[in-house]
Amino acid sequence: MARQTHRVYSLEFKQQVVQETLEPGTSVSVVARRHDMNANVVFEWKRLYREGKLKLPGIEAARTSSTELLPVNVIDLPVPMPRPVQLAENESPSTAGNVPPSVCEIEVEIGKRRVRIRGLPLERAESFLQECLK
């Protein structure tokens, strides 16, 4: 049975590959294919870089972790009121069920990128944010 060899990469090569992945719009998978290597290896090198264990010349490590907090601004927006509905004789306003659910807007800005989601029900927005920030 043929024994597979483990490739050893120089520090300079690792730094070059990680540097390529930091360019805006660059895919780790594309960079890995360009160098004929497994993307998981490149992801591992990026993790080491984020943790400060792989230094890039002239670049301060971008330390991030799953416990890092991001600033969040909550902005109250006016909710448009629905047009009045003609109630039946035996219906009261409390039983009509015409109250719209609370809606909100989420805006996330990271660097030059901004994502804005409008019109989400409040409960859906909360679960969406909790899922994203895990």
TrEMBL record:
<protein>
    <recommendedName>
        <fullName>Transposase</fullName>
    </recommendedName>
</protein>
<dbReference type="Pfam" id="PF01527">
    <property type="entry name" value="HTH_Tnp_1"/>
</dbReference>
<dbReference type="GO" id="GO:0043565">
    <property type="term" value="F:sequence-specific DNA binding"/>
</dbReference>
<dbReference type="InterPro" id="IPR002514">
    <property type="entry name" value="Transposase_8"/>
</dbReference>
<dbReference type="GO" id="GO:0004803">
    <property type="term" value="F:transposase activity"/>
</dbReference>
<dbReference type="GO" id="GO:0006313">
    <property type="term" value="P:DNA transposition"/>
</dbReference>
<dbReference type="InterPro" id="IPR010921">
    <property type="entry name" value="Trp_repressor/repl_initiator"/>
</dbReference>
